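Supplementary Note 3. Input sequence used for the single-chain structure prediction.
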Amino acid sequence: MATRRFPALALALAALAVVSPACALDYRAVTEAAPMYDAPSAKAKPLFVVRAGTPVEVVVSLDGWSKVRDNRGDLAWIEKKHLTEKRNVIVRLDRAQIRATAEDKAALVFEAERDVVLELLEAVSGGWAKVKHRDGQSGYVKAPQVWGL
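The predicted structure, written as discrete structure tokens, is reproduced below.
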């Protein structure tokens, strides 16, 4: 009987491996200040207005709407026309250090405060991301210091 369970377990694990890439996180940025709703309709209750550039994670997409999660974990609906594939990240700590290279001991280029939005230029191996501030400064930040990767 134990030998019959192994093929079923192996088959379940193989199916899970095939499904995993489909579960990848889908991050977008908000193109302009836009209302967030409690349902996928302009007639639904508006919850708040999200600012331009804010990164969001797309959880569900229906017709012209997307249900998104913000960096605080809140869920709301937004019209797809307000989303872009451009990637931004948002600082999740009191202060994030942006360094000249992707190394802990690299020179500090600047610090960004909590909730500052940075443009994601590229994800770098070793748990770093190359980012750019709206003022033009760029550098590398450790992934745990930001949300949206």
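Residues 1-23 have pLDDT under 50 and may be disordered. The two ends are 45 Å apart (CA to CA).
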